[in-house]
Design goal:
Blueprint (H helix, E strand, L loop, with lengths): L1 H8 L4 E4 L3 H8 L10 H10 L3 E4 L2 H5 L4 E4 L14 H13 L4 E5 L7 H12 L4 E5 L9 H6 L4 E4 L3 H11 L9 E4 L1 H32 L3 H9 L20 H14 L5 H13 L2 H10 L7 E5 L14 H11 L3 E5 L4 H8 L4 E2 L3 H5 L4 E4 L11 H7 L4 E4 L6 H6 L3 E3 L8 H4 L4
Parallel strand pairs: 1-2, 3-4, 4-5, 6-7, 8-9, 8-11, 9-10, 11-12, 12-13
Helix pairs in contact: 1-3, 5-6, 9-11, 9-12, 11-12
Nicotinamide-adenine-dinucleotide binds next to helix 5.
């Protein structure tokens, strides 16, 4: 969606193809299948101006194309590796449908060697020569349009320099601020994407592990962050403790790398630990809630703010909030949940087992505690007086360290963050 739309926005004619009829029919009528800030407006404008079209007919969709991007999902397979069935299926269909030579670009995140294998498979079927190039995607959900328009870098993996030149021309409008266009082998490009995600996920698991240590020893991880971040070798980016990473990329990509290592008789020990630390971190809030309410937990009603795996998206794939919901439901807790964009997706999974609240304050009515699982901006400065009136117990479990402990405790809340000592008020208001 983002790739197609942004390329149309820069003047190209783009056809987006998907096999899911509902998605394409919805898009033809202007209904987007995902929430992404700024995307709707650009889709509608480019659709109206005839540069952006949608179809389920692959042969028709690629007929006029010079470049075909493959951006299908590559989810985790049963063995932990990447499931490439979508890439192979589309590659085959494209090869069978070719009516002229084309450049095929793999946008999906794929294990090293996939481009080479795809080129081999397509050459077996196609009557025309094809170039297969790798062009990994680095955008962030929630800021995808911005990231596409101002990428830190564009990476392409090619076998022939002419292919890199064509792709450079396509991306030139987005590289005007001297952002680098990096040309390398398809293998290196494929690996670049995984290495980037491995390092980012490592930073998250690292700071989460340190946060848990801070908490155990009475240090505050936010102060420690300030203490380390000014060191230019370390910096502040991606070192926010929380309830673990989720989403459609980090979990599966880290496991794909573990699987890639095993396939070569190696062991990706650090990545195994990163995954393990992350799984344990998803349980941290539950353990705090359980310790707080003790045996009275099953009688409680808890409000959760934020369900998407991160703010500014409706994506709930592998969202830590869902793990918390499952555990709390199992413990017999009633849940009142709110998210600015993800409620419909969550309702599809849980049906009438949760109470869905359109407004954040609605979720607090008759609740014994508030849990923050995703740090949407609108949660940062709420009306604490209203919250105190609505909650049965003024206790906050802040899974994203959104609030300042001193501020909320002064107002009368008990506060439990990540990597910060629980506040003294907590024991004063602890329910019997
Ligand atoms: N979502 C992100 O932020 C992000 C960022 C970087 C890289 N990636 C990578 O991009 C790829 C796609 O991710 P996504 O989040 O957009 O996945 P997605 O599952 O949301 O979208 C993939 C689309 O491909 C369609 N599809 C699957 N098989 C098909 C087929 N045979 N023919 C036609 N259409 C088919 C699906 O119907 C779906 O609409 C993945 O490899 C992912 O790792 C995603």
């Amino acid at each position: 969606m983002v790739q197609g739309t942004c390329l149309a926005e820069s003047g190209n004619d783009v056809v987006c193809i998907d096999k899911v009829v509902d998605k394409i029919e919805g898009l033809k009528r202007g209904r987007l299948p995902i929430y992404e800030p700024g995307l709707g407006e650009q889709v509608h404008r480019n659709q109206r101006d005839g540069r952006l079209k949608f179809t389920t007919d692959l042969a028709e969709g690629i007929a006029e194309a010079e470049i075909v991007f493959i951006a299908v999902g590559t989810p985790q397979a049963d063995d932990g590796g990447a499931d490439l069935s979508g890439v192979w299926a589309v590659g085959r269909q494209v090869a069978e449908s070719l009516s002229s030579p084309k450049i095929i670009v793999v946008k999906s995140t794929v294990p090293v060697g996939t481009n080479a294998e795809l080129a081999r498979r397509m050459a077996e079927v196609s009557k025309f020569p094809v170039d297969v190039a790798s062009n990994p995607e680095f955008l962030k959900e929630g800021a995808a349009i911005e990231d596409f328009n101002k990428p830190d870098r564009v990476v392409v993996g090619v076998r022939r320099p002419e292919v890199a030149d064509r792709l450079h021309a396509l991306y030139a409008p987005f590289l005007r601020t001297d952002r680098p266009f990096l040309v390398m082998s398809p293998e290196s490009a494929e690996m670049t994407k995984y290495v980037a995600n491995c390092l980012l996920a490592t930073k998250i698991s690292f700071i989460n592990e340190m946060a848990n240590l801070c908490e155990a020893y009475g240090a505050d991880v936010n102060e420690v962050r300030r203490g380390i971040g000014h060191d230019q070798r370390i910096g502040f980016h991606f070192l926010h403790p929380g309830v673990g990473y989720g989403g459609s990329c980090f979990p599966k990509d880290i496991r794909a790398v573990i699987h890639m290592a095993r396939s070569k008789g190696l062991q990706a020990r650090m990545m195994e630990s990163v995954d393990e630390v992350n799984e344990a971190q998803k349980d941290v809030l539950f353990r705090k809630i359980e310790a707080y309410f003790e045996r009275t937990l099953p009688e409680r009603t808890i409000a959760i703010w934020g369900l998407a795996f991160k703010p500014r998206t409706d994506d709930i794939r592998e969202a830590p909030a869902l793990v918390l919901i499952d555990t709390l439901l199992k413990a017999g807790v009633e849940l009142r949940v709110h998210d600015p964009e993800a409620l419909a997706n969550v309702r599809e999974i849980y049906g009438d087992r949760l109470t869905y609240c359109d407004r954040p304050y609605g979720a607090l009515e008759q609740a014994d505690a508030l849990v923050i699982a995703t740090e949407w901006n609108e949660f940062r400065n709420p009306d604490f007086e209203v919250m105190l009136r609505l909650l049965r117990h003024p206790v906050i479990f802040d899974g994203r360290n959104v609030f300042e402990p001193a501020r909320v405790t002064a107002l009368g809340f008990a506060y439990h963050g990540i990597g910060r000592a629980a506040t003294a008020v907590a024991s004063a208001t602890r329910p019997g």
